[in-house]
Amino acid sequence: MSEARSGKVIVISGPSGVGKTSLYKKVLDALKDKLGFSISVTTRAQRADEKEGADYIFITIEEFKKRADRGEFAEWAEVHGKFYGTPKAEIERILESGRSVLLDLDVQGAMKIRESYPDAKLIYILPPSFEVLERRLYGRNTDDDETRHTRMQNAVAEMKYVSKYHLRIVNDDFDKALAHLQEAVEKLIAGDESWIEYL
User: Fold this and answer.
1) Residue of 97, 123, 119, 91 whose CA lies nearest to 32
2) Distance, first Cα to last Cα, the chain
3) What is the pLDDT of residues 54-109, one digit of tens each?
4) pLDDT in tens, 175-185
5) Considering its fold, how many domains does the chain have in total?
6) Residue 51 lies in a domain
7) Buried b / exposed e across 48-67, counting CB within 10 Å, b at 16+?
8) CA-CA distance, 89 to 195, in Å (whole number)?
9) Nearest Cα residue to 31 out of 117, 101, 126
10) Other CB atoms within 10 Å distance of the CB of residue 120
């Protein structure tokens, strides 16, 4: 990795249904000249509202394992029975363009990225409560009951890692959470890390 690059690696995590995708897409849109999104590779099925190559790169389990064996991922993990990975080439492409890179990862992936990019900054989006999270998951109608149950169990397990994040934002009011997230990302891009909760 080049020492001259000024771009930052920023990881956003949070349980399914917390609203992190809506939040980071707004931030990406506002900061598109300075921030790029690293698209993950996954073996899960494509949802109706997702676009190939924009939201995810959808591949088979066999192809995923081949890429993992070739060392093409900066991190990869099995989540909810499906595989997800972040291509090293995608991170490097964005950083080489002079922009910072935003990653949407679960806690396993975030911890692995910190190993590869020790200066990476981690932001966790929290629900106001588990009850609210459960209502959001059941309200979006994208998963069956078994998948929702698994996602809730994983959300509880993920909370053990929250203390390892530099910043935690509670999404109880979307506009406030968005303003907080955008301000944090803008400061990181500008090199202002004085506000970060160092671990």
Assistant:
1) 97
2) 24
3) 889 999 999 999 999 999 999 998 877 899 999 999 999 999 999 999 999 988 89
4) 999 999 999 99
5) 1
6) yes
7) eeeeeeebbbebeeeebeeb
8) 30
9) 101
10) 18
Q: Per the domain annotation, does 1 fall within a domain?
A: no
Nearest C-alpha neighbor of 73 from the set 10, 116, 21: 116
Average pLDDT, the chain: 86
What whole-number distance in Å separates Cα of residue 93 and Cα of residue 99?
A: 9
What pTM was estimated for this model as a whole? 0.82
Stronger pLDDT, 7 or 195, i.e. the higher one = 7
Tokens for 29, please give them.
């849109």
Contact 35, 100 (CB under 8 A): yes
Q: How many C-beta neighbours within 10 Å does residue 181 have? A: 21
Calculate the alpha carbon distances from 128 to 26, 157, 163, 165 in Å: 20, 16, 16, 17
Domain with 35 in it: what CATH number?
A: 3.40.50.300
The answer, yes or no, to whether residue 1 has pLDDT greater than 80, is no
With 0-12 / 13-18 / 19 or more C-beta atoms within 10 angstroms meaning exposed / middle / buried, residue 73 is buried
Contact 99, 36 (CB under 8 A): yes
Q: Report yes or no on 143 lying in a domain.
A: yes
